[in-house]
């Protein structure tokens, strides 16, 4: 691409360090500058329109032109643009949003703590787990287990929980005491002839072996996304969570459900926790919580954990954790409006109505010569690619990111994550738009061969 001096692209290259981007390549390739959006489409600075096949970052549930969210933000900005929640202060949207989330929670939850990003919500969960075990007088029970290929964010603790090598390498992560167990990717990790159920048993056995090796009295919690989306849309094998939770219960290990992507109808239920029968002690939320129109995240905690925090903070004199923008009233007002729209517009029913068509396309693309496995649930899917369908994954081939580039030429924005091309459109997508998205993806796969 030719980059004109003083263009937006040239200024971006000159001044902007991009998250999750090859910084060297960026100097020659430059950015795709997005300037507007309508429904599930976004438009770049040259006027080219794309279907947003990933809802931004698995997050813009209501697309890119939901004026009711903009109006909710404006209304709140005019009345109380900012106030914090430190030292017994509160704002109405923060109170109403906490109340609404507790009412919606898929399992009984007691309190909500607000942060700004999924990473912060997960970092807060880690700190509260440590605080909780100190409150209970078991300071040695602090280790945390997550899964290889899981994604929980990039801050020091949540980046440690993330089980992807590029999130650790040269950042000196993971932190000691944050451990990883087997990724439940059946096709990749099952032994020849092993059934899904037998593979799930082996995953649970490996978790148990790790807990026993470390000493159950040192292991505090297990973090899991219901579906591991960023790691390549890994859908749990049958009976997986049932068996994992039996191990956690046996050794008194807390379960944190990271619902940052799955939360709010993505998997065909309001929460992935319902889709896969989880019984978490804590739940983290972000992204679709506000349909991504403003940054806000939340951590829901059970009554047992809350009771321990009350006792510990009374002993210390304060609960010494919080962000300037915890429960920011404008972000909270936008989140409340998003939740109101999900309900009023019947977003969950819509997802249930269109998901079969989306998944039928996904299954059909599973027969494409480049696709070694097509996986998905609700409105999220991954197409695992390998040049001859059977070859073991070779990251140097970068076939999924190549396919994503071809998709862009066909007017679809998506991403190659590891070996998998991910699809996670805005929840408002219509059946006609699903057909258009999948036809364009098929053309991109044909180009990639
Ligand atoms: N948890 C999950 C499951 C995610 O997918 C992500 C981001 O993609 C995060 C946590 C981190 O969220 P954030 O990027 O808002 O910090």
UniProtKB/TrEMBL annotation:
E.C. number: 2.6.1.96
Tree of life domain: Bacteria
Keywords: Aminotransferase, Coiled coil, Pyridoxal phosphate, Transferase
Coiled-coil ranges from the UniProt annotation: 427-449
Entry GO MF terms: 4-aminobutyrate:pyruvate transaminase activity
Keyword Acyltransferase assigned: no
InterPro entries cross-referenced by the UniProt entry: Aminotrans_3, Aminotrans_3_PPA_site, PyrdxlP-dep_Trfase, PyrdxlP-dep_Trfase_major, PyrdxlP-dep_Trfase_small
Cofactor field: pyridoxal 5'-phosphate
Family: Belongs to the class-III pyridoxal-phosphate-dependent aminotransferase family.
Identification of the protein by name: 4-aminobutyrate--pyruvate transaminase
Source organism per UniProt: Ancylobacter polymorphus
